[in-house]
Structure to design on (467 residues):
C-alpha cells in the first residue's frame, strides 16, 4: 500500500512561514519510481510543469534532481522560436545512451504537440509524446509506458476544457500562478501558439477566485494570472469581465500583489487601467507586446491593431493616477520589414519610454501563415537590427530608472546576495530593486520591505531599507 501526501510548507508551519512545497511520501513494499523534469519556455509552461509534477506524484512518482537518478526523463518544451525547439532534441541526443539502463523519455508541451509522432522518428528512444491540452490523460499514458508501450496525447486541441487539478506542486513558494485562459484564437502570422496550445478556453471566475483564496490560505501573497492572451478572457458563467476578475482577485482578503500576463493590444480595454487605478493590490505594471512600430509590418503580422491604436492604449496608462510601468515584446526582421519600418519601431520605443523590452529575431515556424512569405532578411541583418534596438532601449531604461532616485518603494524580498551583502527585491512595477539593510534588520525572503532608491542601472535599482 502506498500513500502520498502533498503538503505545502504554509499548511504545516502557518501562514507567515510559507516555504517550499514539501513532499512527504509514505512507502511500503515496492520501490518508488522517480522522474526528472526540465522545463523550457514561458510561465505557462512553468505552471503546466507544476501541474504535471503534482499529477506524477499522485501516481506514485518521486521527483529527482538529475537525469541519472531518474527512471523517467521528461522535457516540457517550447517551440516559439527555432532555437527553443532545437534545445530539446539536443538534450534527447545527449542522454540517449541512458536508454540502455531502462530509463524512459517523454516529450511534453509545444514541441510534442507540433511534431506529434515525428518525435519518435527523430528520437526513437522517446516513449511518451504529450501536448499541453492532453495532460489530464497523463495517468493512463504513464501506465502504458510503464508496460513498455509508446503513448501519445495529441488530439485534445479542440477541447473546451482547461486543465485543472488539485495536485499542483508549486515550485515558487511566494508567487502562485493561476491559469485563467488557455490557447489562442488570434493567429498572428508568425506565431505557432494557436497550433500548439489550441483554441481559447477560459476558466470560470468562480474557480479562479476559489484557487486565489486557497493560495492566500497557503501563505501566498502574490498571484500571477496567466494566459496567452488574458484580455480575451470570457467567463463561461458570464459573471465577470477580465477587469472585474482582476479586481475581485485583488480584493481577496490577505492578497498583496496581483500580476497578469500576457496582454494583446487589440483586446486591452480601458477598464483594465481603471481596475489598476482603483485596486492597490493590482501591480502597476502592464506587459503589452507591440511587435513592431510600423503599420505596414503590423498588418503583415495580422496583429489586428495599428500603431495609433496601440499608442491610444499607452495613453490610457499614462493618464492613470498610479504610475504604471510598461514593457513589451518586439520582433525584428519580419518578412518585408524595411529599414524605414525598423526606424518606426525605434521611434515608438522613444515615444512610449518602455521600462523593458524583450527582443526577438523573426524565426519562421511550421504551420504559420508567415511561412508563405519570403524570409528575405539575412540573419546578419536581423542581428544588426536587434543590436541597434537593444542599445537604444538601454538608453531609454537608464532614463526611465533614474526617475526613481529618492523615491521609496515597497519590495517583495526574493533573495539574498551574500557576496554583495545585498538583498534582492521586486517592486510592484516589476523592477529588480537590490538593497542593503541595517545590521539589526534581517529581511525575510517572501516578506515585504520599504526601500529608498539611491542609484539606478539600466536593468535594476539599488537602495536602502527603511525601518
Ligand atoms: N519569431 C520570433 N519571435 C516570436 N515570438 C513569437 N513567435 C515568434 C517568431 N516566430 C515572440 C513574440 C511574442 C513572444 C512571446 O515571442 O514577440 O510576443
Ligand atoms: Fe501568438 Fe499572437 Fe496568440 Fe500571442 S496573440 S500567442 S503572438 S498568436
Amino acid at each position: 500500500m502506498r500513500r502520498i501526501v502533498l503538503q505545502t510548507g504554509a499548511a504545516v508551519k502557518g501562514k507567515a512561514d510559507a516555504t517550499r512545497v514539501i513532499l512527504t511520501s509514505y512507502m511500503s513494499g515496492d520501490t518508488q519510481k522517480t522522474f526528472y523534469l526540465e522545463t523550457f519556455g514561458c510561465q505557462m509552461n512553468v505552471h503546466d510543469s507544476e501541474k504535471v509534477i503534482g499529477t506524477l506524484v499522485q501516481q506514485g512518482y518521486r521527483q529527482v534532481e538529475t537525469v541519472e537518478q531518474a527512471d523517467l526523463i521528461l522535457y516540457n518544451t517550447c517551440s516559439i522560436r527555432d532555437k527553443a525547439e532545437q534545445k530539446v532534441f539536443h538534450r534527447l541526443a545527449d542522454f540517449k545512451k541512458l536508454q540502455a539502463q531502462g530509463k524512459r523519455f517523454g516529450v511534453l508541451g509545444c514541441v510534442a504537440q507540433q511534431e506529434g509522432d515525428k518525435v519518435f522518428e527523430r528520437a526513437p528512444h522517446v516513449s511518451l509524446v504529450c501536448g499541453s491540452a492532453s495532460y489530464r490523460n497523463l495517468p493512463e499514458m504513464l501506465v502504458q509506458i510503464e508496460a513498455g508501450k509508446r503513448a501519445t496525447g495529441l488530439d485534445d486541441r479542440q477541447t473546451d476544457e482547461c486543465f485543472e487539478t488539485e495536485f499542483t506542486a508549486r515550485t515558487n513558494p511566494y508567487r502562485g500562478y493561476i491559469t485563467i485562459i488557455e490557447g489562442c484564437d488570434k493567429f498572428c502570422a508568425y506565431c505557432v501558439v494557436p497550433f500548439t496550445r489550441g483554441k481559447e478556453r477560459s476558466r470560470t471566475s468562480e474557480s479562479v477566485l476559489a484557487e486565489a483564496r486557497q493560495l492566500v490560505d497557503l501563505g501566498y501573497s502574490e498571484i500571477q494570472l496567466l494566459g496567452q492572451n488574458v484580455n480575451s478572457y470570457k467567463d463561461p458563467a458570464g459573471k465577470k469581465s477580465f477587469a472585474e476578475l482582476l479586481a475581485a482577485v485583488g480584493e481577496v482578503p490577505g492578497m498583496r500583489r496581483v500580476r497578469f500576463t500576457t496582454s494583446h493590444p487589440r483586446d486591452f480595454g480601458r477598464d483594465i487601467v481603471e481596475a489598476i487605478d482603483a485596486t492597490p493590490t493590482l501591480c502597476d505594471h502592464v506587459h503589452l507586446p507591440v511587435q513592431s512600430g510600423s503599420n505596414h509590418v503590423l498588418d503583415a503580422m495580422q496583429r489586428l491593431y495599428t500603431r495609433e491604436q496601440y499608442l491610444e492604449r499607452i495613453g490610457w496608462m499614462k493618464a492613470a493616477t498610479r504610475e504604471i510601468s510598461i514593457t513589451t515584446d518586439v520582433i525584428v526582421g519580419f518578412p518585408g520589414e524595411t529599414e524605414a519600418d525598423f526606424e518606426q519601431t525605434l521611434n515608438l520605443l522613444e515615444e512610449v519610454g518602455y521600462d523593458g523590452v524583450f527582443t526577438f529575431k523573426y524565426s519562421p515556424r511550421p504551420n504559420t501563415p508567415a511561412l508563405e512569405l519570403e524570409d528575405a532578411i539575412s540573419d546578419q541583418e536581423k542581428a544588426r537590427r536587434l543590436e541597434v534596438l537593444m542599445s537604444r532601449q538601454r538608453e531609454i531604461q537608464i532614463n526611465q530608472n533614474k526617475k526613481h532616485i529618492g523615491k521609496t518603494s515597497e519590495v517583495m524580498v526574493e533573495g539574498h546576495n551574500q557576496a554583495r551583502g545585498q538583498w534582492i527585491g521586486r517592486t510592484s512595477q516589476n523592477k529588480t530593486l537590490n538593497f542593503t539593510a541595517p545590521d539589526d534588520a534581517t529581511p525575510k525572503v517572501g516578506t515585504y520591505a520599504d526601500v529608498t532608491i539611491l542609484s539606478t542601472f539600466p536593468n535594476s535599482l539599488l537602495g536602502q531599507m527603511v525601518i
Remarks:
- DSSP finds 14 helices and 21 strands in the chain.
- The CA atoms of residues 232 and 467 lie 42 Å apart.
- The radius of gyration is 23 Å.
